[in-house]
Amino acid sequence: EDILNFIGLVEGKNYTKQSQEGTDRPDYTFYLPQKKHVNMDVKFPLSHYELYISAVSDTEKNSEKKQFMIDVRNQVKEIAKRSYINPEGGTVDYVLMFIPNESIYTFLNQEDNELIDFSLENKIILCSPITLYAVLSLIRQAVSSFAMERRAGDMQNLIGLFSKQWQMFVSKMDGLGDTLG
Questions:
Q1: Which long-range contacts (CB under 8 A, 24 or more apart) does 115-123 make?
Q2: What is the full per-residue pLDDT of the chain (181 aa) written as tens digits?
Q3: What is the pTM of this model?
Q4: Could you give the C-alpha distances from 94 to 50, 97, 134, in angstroms and in order?
């Protein structure tokens, strides 16, 4: 929520929390132009990572690291099974999975160089706080650009109507001038 507030996203206008998507409830739903949206899941398995950090022996560290990596892949699989992707319902083809810490995100990429590919195969985009900031900034910019483009189109239509009305006014004034003459 700190990232959302920092970017200037407003709940109810730019996103909702825990909205229904099919049979599931994503943690966040972000609105895109043309009635599209993207869902994000923020649940993340940290218990084995914390045990890995606090482990003393190498055996224990290796065991906890292995289990943590399994937990992360299982979380990706779990998210992929949910109804967060529903193009008929207006979603995009991917779901965001929030990883709550940059160092954890870096750790995952260093320890499992196939995790990002695995996630993308499951239509999941892994987002650290920094990458989430970048993704949400792009979303916000796309929404703003789309709204500006639409307003510009509306303005062109209004100027066209004004031009027609002005021509009619000029024509009437010319007629009045002829009558007075």
A1: 115/69, 115/72, 115/73, 115/76, 118/73, 118/76, 119/76, 122/76, 122/77, 122/79, 122/80, 123/80, 123/85, 123/93, 123/94, 123/95
A2: 878 778 777 788 778 787 766 667 888 888 887 788 888 888 888 888 888 888 888 898 899 999 999 999 999 898 888 878 877 777 778 888 998 888 888 888 888 888 888 988 988 988 888 888 888 877 777 766 665 666 666 677 677 777 788 788 778 888 877 787 7
A3: 0.69
A4: 29, 10, 16
What are 33's two structure tokens?
């132009």
Which helix (DSSP H) or strand (DSSP E) does residue 132 occupy? helix 129-180
User: Hey, what are 69's tokens?
Assistant: 């990596």
